[in-house]
Amino acid sequence: MTFISPRRSRPRLLHAVLAAGVMGAMAGPVALPPAYAADTEAASSFTPAQRQEIVGIVREALKTDPTILSDAIAALRNSANAAQQNAARTALDSHRAELLAPAANDGVLGSATAHATVVEFYDPRCPYCRKVLPDLDRLTHEDTDLRIIEKVIPVLGQGSLIASQALVAAFLQGGQDAYFRMQRAVMNDSTAPTVERMRTLATQSGLNATRLATDMNSQKVTAILEANLELARAIGLDGTPTFVFNARQIIPGAVDYDALKKAIAQNRQ
């Protein structure tokens, strides 16, 4: 995986600024990253007069060199980015097996035995998830050693839950073929999702609408969706779509064809 590296050196004055709490005194509270824990402990030994002297020194320094403040902000941002990337690395390592092999009820585009694996977490009501569908089809048609594992997660309210239940129920009824037929119907539909609407779409997709409506509220469908959500939370997902490339890199949000193809190439085993 490629991660953003923190800055390897920072001006000594930044340590004094952060340790003395000057940033907080000047611009409100600032959450300090763990890298500054020792400096923060040292700050507790300063007398009020010493703290005031440091404030004066920093204010004077800012007048002559305003870049000090931007450097301090950049240092905090870089440290936060590094911590976030480290957390992502740990999460991907911990769930590597789950992210490299499809679960029994996952939709899979492309070759089931491919070496390049992309996992997409998506919500069927998400407009960006709908927009990227043609790109996913194109990628798997162009690359015969690629598979895209689809994990549906309802994160956009009751309508998303109903649509997600219908997709999983379609898989239980007829496997991959039924799942993708129902997916095309659901994700090209502009009508608000209801159980009756799912019955209509199921009939149009050649499925047993009565069975689908019954299965939507089954324990098995609930368990599958809960497992998808649990894995999504474990890797720190905060929106849809989110893509995971060979359990090495996470890219959240709307991603176009070129960015997807580049990430696949960079993370290919």
TrEMBL record:
<keyword id="KW-0732">Signal</keyword>
<dbReference type="InterPro" id="IPR041205">
    <property type="entry name" value="ScsC_N"/>
</dbReference>
<keyword id="KW-1015">Disulfide bond</keyword>
<dbReference type="GO" id="GO:0016491">
    <property type="term" value="F:oxidoreductase activity"/>
</dbReference>
<keyword id="KW-0560">Oxidoreductase</keyword>
<dbReference type="Pfam" id="PF18312">
    <property type="entry name" value="ScsC_N"/>
</dbReference>
<dbReference type="InterPro" id="IPR001853">
    <property type="entry name" value="DSBA-like_thioredoxin_dom"/>
</dbReference>
<protein>
    <submittedName>
        <fullName>DsbA family protein</fullName>
    </submittedName>
</protein>
<feature type="domain" description="Thioredoxin">
    <location>
        <begin position="76"/>
        <end position="269"/>
    </location>
</feature>
<keyword id="KW-0676">Redox-active center</keyword>
<dbReference type="Pfam" id="PF01323">
    <property type="entry name" value="DSBA"/>
</dbReference>
<dbReference type="InterPro" id="IPR013766">
    <property type="entry name" value="Thioredoxin_domain"/>
</dbReference>
<feature type="signal peptide">
    <location>
        <begin position="1"/>
        <end position="27"/>
    </location>
</feature>
<dbReference type="InterPro" id="IPR036249">
    <property type="entry name" value="Thioredoxin-like_sf"/>
</dbReference>
<dbReference type="InterPro" id="IPR006311">
    <property type="entry name" value="TAT_signal"/>
</dbReference>
